[in-house]
């Protein structure tokens, strides 16, 4: 056997690549391997009952794979063993499967069920490994299975399984990029994970799938910073690189007012010293500053964002990592993000890395070279660490030379030059050439040593090595060009060299020099030309060209002596083999020898040839490389590598820092809340309006008050407004007291908030989990929002409590009804829900509608039959907090524009009121509702700096001058979305702050209803066939049977009106898009078994497709 | 991240390939071979080579090129560091990392690579975890395996991967509990012609071999921790404690590991333990050159200098040498022009010297470069920087471990210019 295999080894070696189809397997026994029945022995072994035989076979197969041999024909035999009990066999089968599944997709499917079973195993490690292999099988058919598995694993109990899920995300993404949206949801979920095990992997997935979604990081930023030190080293690298990019978009340039540093130095030190401890104070300070002078940003002393500081502080210890990649990552972070004064700390660590393997050295030196141009001072103390040893590889030597050159300045140049002197004697000639160039660069950069360098280089001209001499000539040429007058003796010296030097580039350089400065060497120049003319035919092309050049220049300055020589050279050149030279000769002859035909140009020949040429600038090849993120592959190659994420420039003004604020969880608030409740009993009446600030309020009032108050609301609105303001002033004194006390409270809470960061995070996570578990089938992305929502609800509902006391009997009755109709399930939610209902009740029965609200009263097509059903619906929506669940028709969805926490007390919501916007019929009316839950009043609410897509327009609402604390106000603005669902981005400004917000319309809001008869509808539909028609089949959701339900849902999803129809199996709707007025026709045909067919006809296909999707979604739920 | 890995031996054959994503044809290595041809020396192959569709990042260790294929932006150091980690792991498993060792253990290698990367992203690189997953082959185990048909793959699942101390495996048991620490310092220096020090720095490491039962928590304190101002730690070291108290506190991995490495830079005065007197001259016109070399100890704190080895790359013009060592043996390779003198121990009473003549190519002009002399040596029982361990304490376990600390100084890149 052993002899056999040895024999085969040889054979395998020889027939290596020659005949891959017979893929001679050296491992298999020679006896069995005949050409047409290859691998039969292996198949037999795999089919046997003995594990040891199977294992042996698998080992041979893996050895074949390792050698790059084709073993794919064994696929069926191997896959059978996927469920083998023996762990090693199983593992090797996995290896095989992952390698060949792509080629044998159908057979690979046989193994899937094994992994699916594994996914449900009680042991976390088995679950993880099943997911790992499953996701590594690159078979497109199983994408849905993978997606499901990943989703499930992402909420697994075990962090290790979650980590594996994070790893699986990029795999699935590369297999099917269409899954991006779903995967982003999973990423978002995993980003919120608290364990260090997951953090690195999920950020990796984030970088591969959606690096542009920087907004997903906001909430997790502080957590990532704090976890960083405990994450495994590879994850650290990825996270640090990502955070560098993040910080560049979110913070201000710490070096932006360098010049101001001297003036405001004292002040700065002050901020710096206590910046960490009293963050809050710091922030206040900053806010004030911003408010004072947003326009003179440049003038105000820079204060570092505490989050920016957090990042710098938490990454610094990682400079001590044993992993060079981590150290480099931190170094680049500091280089790109830290204030100048602090960047220095990285130098020491980078120098330490230079002791590592030469590949590490190579990369580090490349980066040091770039850094040393920008921040020379940083590496100056470590100059000696860059001295070159004769044993360094050449590429390292050259890089060290580069760094040394960059570090050279007046003070250290003498030591550096002394070093260079020893380098010139090195045996490594490429290195010597590089040294000579380095000397040249030092000479250009530092005027004092120019002459010394030049002299040194001239000495090198007598070196025996031709390469050295040639390089020196080239460098001297460049140096002389800077000040030729003083150095005619050097030129003379070089002229003599033409006899000896053979390197073409050097000869060419000398000739060029002599030609260029022939006036300085009037005697020698013609002689050189004479010599060159003699050897012309034997010269290299580059030298020939320079000879012609020299001849031409001499002819122009000294035609008496050189006329004949020039003619001779030009004649030789005329018959040269190289066409470039022939062309050049012809051209020059025409130019310098005046004939009748040569026109005006020859007059200027002298100017042309002997123009003053600018001296070449010798600069580092590493200059400006720092526009690439340091440490990246792109930086190393100085070219953009695929998938490179551009390092963004610092923003002009800092984006809203509060986006990173993490929610204070409910339960920590409890204690303070109770206190507040007591307090609030004596609250003056004006705070009523706060009750109306509930998130669902606008919707509620819409459903009820629409019909009766539509006409008269306008007047009554203004009237009641003034009334209210009267009340306010009356209760002014009371309010002041109350205000103060409240402030104190708030301050307390505030002070509590930022300190135990990790604590609050943890709890916030818990909260997140709670909400997660509560309402699973929610749309992605609303996770955090809803969490906040609830929070704000609880707050507003507190104020409800006491109001409810004033409620009438009738109301309380109803309330009871409502509570009964849906009993609370979970204890902690109880009061929440109850309050919720109270609120809705209050709103419904509040027959004196909120003044500001009445301005806009949404249209209501389908009034619900009874108040009770309405209530039921309301309570449902409130609890589930999902906009897509059953909503009575009139209910308008409210969207959050600015959350209370982010807005520092100001919360803003918007809804699409579905009313025509009177100032401009082509705009969509958006109703915006401001609620001020802060302690102080907000002033000058207005819109600024709208960034709209081309074609989009916006009609801003009039500025709201003041919004007292606890008040709510609604306004209407119009946006022309141009029939697209692109978001309108703008800044919402108060007198102190600016918030970046955006409004994105659902497609259904981009249209308005029109009325049509059935015939008209059919006619129009007939015209919108083919591409303009989209038909989808759908199974109606359980609660969605019946005409009424269908109508309700469709009209909720889109702003359409019903078209009468003869058949009760079909519902038809019509509308037109707001901007362009294109028709939108929808018909829903229901069948008995709950199936339905939705048809949308619309000229705008994009809108059509999106609308179909939306309608399908609402119908299935 | 890392798409594929190819191992290339010194004669340019690909002897192992592993793919973590779709298969990349081995023809991609042609670009690497091209670069290899262009480079004069094996170590001059650029570590990063761009090709039209991929990037090749390679490291050279033990005369094997580890060529990683990547497709998009990734920090090059990330890949390089990982490849070195792979080599370290192989070395840890097989004792040596040679082509033969890898070929013999190709299945273990494959299993290791499979565990170390998932979809090209590092998964388990800690040797403790890997050893739990895949047992390193030993002679005994190989014999047992062939007889019983059992495997190298660990039967139990790697629980270490899940714990808070991922670097330590669980359930460690020893009958003799021992912890050894080696403080090894290497001195890098460049000495110029006249014998003065141009640059000298110390690179130190503390390597540990800890075989302790259970979950011991160790603290190590130094007499003079101020020396360590530029340190890098194993992830097990609690950084906060070091910052505050300058004490190393850690739960050690099981087995051999590098606890920390440090750097004492040239700003601090570094004592040079040996001196070299040399006289290497070539005369113009003559075909002979003189060669004289004498070594002597200097500032060794009373310890002997051992294992001294001198080598020097002589100029190309030197044909042969005729030298006479006072002790040890010397060799000169006329092809590579490498002179090696194995000195052994330096006796302060009778300094070792190497004297004689070199014959040069007749008629050629005198070489204008001077050779540099590289010296290796060892000094036992002393750390050149003066670093001293104060005490080692163990918490968390009841037994009394055996503790040992060893110091050693070595020459790193110690060069004398002539």
From TrEMBL, chain B:
The keyword RNA-binding does not apply. GO terms for cellular component: clathrin adaptor complex; cytoplasmic vesicle membrane; Golgi apparatus. Coiled coil: none annotated. Its main location: Golgi. CDD domains: AP3_Mu_N. The keyword Kinase does not apply. It is a peripheral membrane protein. Residues 176-417 form the MHD domain. One of its GO terms (biological process) is intracellular protein transport. Keywords: Cytoplasmic vesicle, Golgi apparatus, Membrane, Protein transport, Transport. Belongs to the adaptor complexes medium subunit family. This is AP-3 complex subunit mu-2. It comes from Esox lucius.
């Amino acid at each position: 056997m052993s002899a056999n295999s040895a024999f085969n080894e040889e054979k395998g070696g020889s027939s290596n690549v020659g005949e891959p189809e017979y893929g001679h397997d050296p491992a298999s026994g020679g006896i069995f391997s005949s050409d047409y029945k290859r691998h039969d022995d292996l198949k037999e072994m795999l089919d046997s009952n003995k594990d040891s035989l199977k294992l042996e076979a698998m080992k041979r197969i893996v050895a074949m794979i390792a050698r790059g041999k084709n073993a794919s024909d064994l696929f069926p035999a191997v896959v059978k063993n996927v469920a083998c009990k023996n762990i090693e066999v199983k593992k090797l089968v996995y290896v095989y499967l992952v390698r060949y599944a792509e080629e044998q997709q159908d057979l690979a499917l046989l193994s899937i069920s094994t992994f699916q079973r594994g996914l449900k195993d009680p042991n976390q490690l088995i679950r993880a490994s099943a997911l790992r292999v499953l996701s590594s099988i690159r078979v497109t058919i199983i994408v849905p299975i993978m997606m499901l598995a990943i989703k499930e694993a992402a909420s697994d109990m075990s962090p290790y399984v979650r980590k594996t899920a994070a790893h699986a995300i990029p795999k699935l993404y590369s297999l099917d990029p269409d899954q991006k949206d779903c995967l982003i949801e999973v990423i978002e979920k995993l980003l919120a994970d608290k364990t260090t095990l997951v953090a690195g992997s999920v950020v990796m997935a984030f970088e591969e799938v959606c690096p542009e979604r920087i907004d997903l990081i906001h909430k997790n930023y502080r957590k990532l910073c704090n976890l960083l030190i405990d994450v495994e080293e590879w994850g650290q690298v990825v996270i640090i690189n990502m955070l560098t990019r993040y910080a560049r978009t979110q913070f201000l340039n710490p070096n932006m007012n360098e010049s101001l540093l001297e003036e405001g130095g004292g002040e700065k030190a002050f901020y710096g010293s206590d910046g960490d401890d009293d963050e809050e104070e710091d922030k206040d300070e900053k806010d004030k500053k911003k408010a004072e002078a947003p326009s003179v940003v440049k003038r105000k002393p820079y204060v570092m964002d505490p989050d920016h500081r957090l990042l710098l502080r938490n990454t610094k210890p990682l400079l001590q990592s044993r992993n060079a990649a981590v150290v480099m990552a931190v170094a680049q972070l500091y280089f790109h993000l830290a204030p100048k004064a602090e960047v220095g700390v990285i130098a020491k660590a980078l120098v330490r890395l230079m002791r590592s393997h030469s590949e590490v050295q190579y990369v580090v030196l490349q980066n040091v070279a770039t850094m040393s141009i920008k921040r020379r001072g940083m590496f100056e103390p470590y100059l000696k660490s860059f001295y070159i040893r004769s044993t360094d590889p050449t590429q390292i030597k050259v890089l060290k030379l580069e760094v040394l050159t960059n570090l050279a300045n007046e003070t250290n140049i003498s030591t550096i030059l002394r070093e260079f002197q020893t380098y010139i004697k090195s045996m490594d000639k490429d290195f010597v050439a590089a040294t000579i160039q380095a000397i040249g660069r030092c000479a250009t950069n530092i005027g004092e040593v120019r002459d010394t360098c030049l002299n040194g280089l001239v000495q090198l001209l007598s070196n025996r090595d031709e390469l050295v001499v040639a390089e020196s000539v080239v460098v001297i040429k460049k140096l002389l060009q800077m000040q030729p007058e003083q150095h005619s003796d050097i030129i003379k010296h070089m002229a003599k060299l033409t006899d000896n030097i053979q390197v073409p580039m050097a000869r060419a350089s000398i000739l060029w020099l002599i030609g260029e400065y022939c006036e300085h060497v009037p005697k020698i120049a013609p002689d050189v030309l004479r010599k060159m003319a003699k050897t012309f035919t034997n010269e290299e092309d580059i030298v020939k060209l320079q000879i012609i050049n020299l001849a031409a220049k001499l002819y122009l300055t000294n035609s008496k002596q050189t006329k004949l020589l020039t003619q001779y050279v030009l004649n030789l050149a005329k018959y040269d083999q190289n066409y470039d030279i022939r062309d050049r000769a012809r051209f020059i002859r025409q130019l310098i020898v005046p004939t009748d035909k040569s026109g005006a140009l020859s007059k200027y020949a002298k100017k042309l040839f002997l123009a003053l040429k600018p001296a070449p600038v010798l600069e580092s090849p590493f200059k400006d490389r720092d526009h690439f993120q340091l440490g990246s592959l792109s930086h190393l190659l100085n070219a953009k590598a695929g998938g490179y994420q551009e390092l963004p420039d610092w923003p002009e003004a800092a984006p809203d820092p509060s986006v990173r604020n993490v929610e204070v969880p409910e339960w920590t608030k409890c204690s303070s809340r109770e206190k507040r409740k007591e307090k609030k009993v004596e609250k003056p009446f004006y705070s009523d309006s706060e009750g109306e600030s509930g998130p669902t309020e606008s919707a509620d009032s819409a459903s009820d008050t629409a019909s009766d108050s539509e006409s008269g609301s306008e007047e009554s609105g203004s009237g009641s407004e003034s009334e209210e303001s009267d009340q306010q002033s009356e209760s002014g004194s009371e309010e002041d007291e109350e205000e103060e006390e409240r402030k104190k409270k708030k301050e307390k809470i505030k002070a509590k908030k930022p300190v135990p960061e990790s604590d609050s995070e943890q709890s916030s996570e818990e909260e997140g989990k709670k909400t997660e578990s509560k309402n699973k089938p929610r749309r992605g992305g609303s996770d955090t929002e809803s969490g906040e929502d609830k929070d704000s609800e609880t707050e507003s509902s507190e104020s409800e409590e006491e109001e409810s006391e004033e409620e009438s009997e009738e109301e309380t009755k109803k309330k009871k009804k409502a509570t009964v109709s849906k009993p609370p399930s979970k204890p902690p939610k109880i009061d929440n829900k109850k309050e919720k209902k109270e609120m809705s009740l209050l709103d419904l029965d509040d027959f004196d509608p909120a003044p500001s609200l009445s301005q806009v009263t949404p249209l209501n097509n389908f009034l619900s039959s009874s108040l009770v059903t309405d209530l039921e619906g309301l309570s449902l929506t409130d609890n589930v907090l999902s906009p897509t669940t059953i909503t009575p028709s009139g209910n308008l969805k409210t969207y959050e524009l600015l959350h209370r926490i982010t807005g520092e007390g100001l919360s803003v919501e918007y809804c699409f009121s579905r009313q025509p916007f009177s100032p401009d019929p082509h705009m969509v009316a958006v109703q915006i509702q401001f609620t001020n839950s802060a302690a102080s009043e907000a002033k000058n609410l207005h819109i600024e700096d709208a960034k709209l897509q081309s074609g989009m327009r916006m009609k801003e609402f009039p500025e709201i001058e003041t919004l007292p604390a606890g008040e709510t106000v609604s306004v209407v603005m119009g946006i022309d979305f141009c029939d697209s669902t692109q978001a309108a981005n703008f800044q919402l400004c108060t007198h102190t702050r600016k918030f970046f917000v955006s409004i994105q319309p659902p497609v259904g809001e981009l249209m308005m209803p029109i009325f049509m008869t059935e015939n008209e509808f059919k006619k129009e539909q007939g015209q919108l066939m083919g591409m303009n028609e989209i038909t989808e089949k759908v199974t109606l959701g359980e609660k969605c049977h019946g005409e009424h339900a269908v109508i309700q849902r469709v009209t909720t999803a889109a702003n359409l009106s019903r078209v009468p129809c003869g058949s009760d199996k079909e519902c038809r709707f019509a509308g037109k898009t707001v901007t362009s007025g294109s028709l939108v026709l929808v018909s829903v045909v229901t069948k008995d078994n709950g199936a339905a067919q939705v048809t949308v006809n619309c000229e705008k296909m994009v809108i059509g497709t999106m609308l179909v999707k939306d309608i399908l979604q609402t119908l299935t739920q | 991240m890392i798409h594929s890995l190819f191992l290339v031996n010194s004669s340019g054959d690909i002897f192992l390939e592993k793919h973590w994503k779709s298969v990349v044809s081995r023809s991609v290595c042609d670009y690497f071979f091209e670069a290899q041809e262009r480079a004069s020396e094996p170590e001059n192959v650029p570590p990063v080579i761009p090709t039209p569709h991929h990037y090749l990042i390679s490291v050279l260790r033990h005369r094997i090129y580890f060529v990683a294929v990547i497709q998009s932006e990734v920090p090059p150091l990330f890949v390089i560091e990982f490849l070195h980690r792979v080599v370290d792991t192989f070395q840890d498993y097989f004792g040596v990392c040679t082509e033969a060792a890898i070929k013999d253990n190709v299945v273990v290698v494959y299993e290791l690579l499979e565990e170390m990367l998932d979809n090209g992203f590092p998964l388990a690189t800690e040797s403790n975890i890997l050893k739990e997953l895949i047992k390193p082959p030993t002679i005994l185990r190989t014999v047992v395996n062939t007889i019983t048909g059992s495997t190298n793959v660990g039967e139990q699942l790697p629980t270490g991967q899940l714990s808070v101390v991922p670097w330590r495996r669980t359930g460690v048991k020893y009958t003799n509990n021992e912890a050894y620490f080696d403080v090894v310092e290497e001195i890098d220096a460049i000495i110029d012609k006249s014998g003065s020090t141009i640059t000298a720095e110390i690179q130190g490491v503390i390597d540990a071999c800890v075989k302790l039962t259970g979950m011991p928590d160790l603290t190590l304190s130094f007499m003079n921790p101020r020396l360590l101002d530029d340190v890098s730690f194993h992830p097990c070291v609690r950084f906060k404690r070091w910052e505050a108290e300058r004490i190393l506190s850690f739960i050690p991995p099981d087995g051999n590991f590098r606890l920390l490495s440090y750097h004492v830079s040239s700003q601090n005065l570094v004592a040079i333990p040996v001196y070299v007197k040399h006289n290497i001259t070539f005369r113009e016109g003559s075909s002979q050159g003189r060669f004289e070399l004498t070594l002597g100890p200097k500032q060794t704190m009373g310890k002997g200098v051992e294992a001294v080895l001198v080598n020097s790359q002589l100029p190309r013009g030197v044909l042969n040498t005729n030298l006479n060592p006072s002790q040890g043996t010397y060799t000169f390779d006329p092809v590579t022009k490498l002179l090696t003198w194995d000195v052994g121990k330096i006796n302060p009473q009778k300094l070792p010297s190497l004297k004689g003549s070199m014959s040069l190519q007749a008629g050629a002009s005198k070489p204008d470069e001077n050779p540099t002399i590289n010296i290796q040596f060892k000094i036992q029982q002393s750390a050149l920087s003066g670093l001293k361990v104060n005490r080692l304490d163990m918490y968390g376990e009841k037994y009394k471990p055996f503790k040992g600390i060893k110091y050693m100084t070595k020459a790193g890149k110690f060069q004398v210019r002539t």
